[in-house]
């Protein structure tokens, strides 16, 4: 009887310790919707998903790369990317995402689209085009 009582006391003690530990550490864990911008080098401006294509085209390479690293991490963390079977999308890198966004914004009709939309659409839209492709509009 005493062994059963000791087991239940130990079990509850472990449960309380685990609960307290979870409550203490949870404010420090990242939340999926929390934005943690990557600061580009040399004090360049920070791009965000609400900016438009004109800001993207005018931004420095450092600012673009910092945005692409953040957008790439969000893309890899999304459930949608696991459904994409294209090798060109599965092997995408932050640099490749920047190139796809450059391709996207080289088309004049997309200049007013937000960066967040372009980061989601461009890798799929230009999955089969060679890196470095730019489109000239007349």
What does this entry look like structurally?
The structure is a single chain. By secondary structure, this protein is mainly α. It has two domains: 1-30; 41-125. 54% of the residues lie in helices and 0% in strands. The protein contains six helices and no strands. Helix 3 (61-77) packs across helix 5 and helix 5 packs across helix 6.
Proportion of helical residues: 40-55%
Structural class: mainly alpha
**Number of DSSP E strands:** 0
Chain oligomer state: single chain
Order of helices and strands: HHHHHH
Number of helices: 6
Strand content: under 5%
Task: Write a brief structural summary.
The protein has 138 residues and is mostly helical.
Topology:
Layout: H1 2-25, H2 53-58, H3 61-77, H4 87-90, H5 94-105, H6 115-125
Helix pairs in contact: 3-5, 5-6
Keywords:
6 helices, 138 residues, 2 domains, mainly alpha
């Amino acid at each position: 009887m005493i062994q059963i009582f000791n087991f239940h006391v130990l079990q509850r003690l472990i449960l309380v310790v685990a609960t307290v530990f979870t409550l203490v550490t949870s404010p420090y864990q990242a939340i999926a919707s929390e934005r943690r911008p990557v600061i580009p080098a040399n004090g360049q401006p920070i791009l965000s998903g609400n900016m438009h294509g004109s800001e993207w085209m005018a931004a420095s390479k450092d600012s673009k790369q910092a945005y692409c690293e953040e957008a790439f991490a969000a893309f890899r963390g999304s459930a949608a990317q696991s459904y994409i079977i294209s090798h060109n999308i599965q092997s995408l890198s932050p640099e490749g995402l920047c190139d796809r966004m450059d391709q996207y914004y080289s088309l004049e009709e997309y200049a007013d689209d937000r960066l967040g939309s372009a980061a989601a659409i461009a890798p799929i839209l230009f999955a089969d085009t060679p890196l470095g492709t730019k489109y000239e509009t007349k």
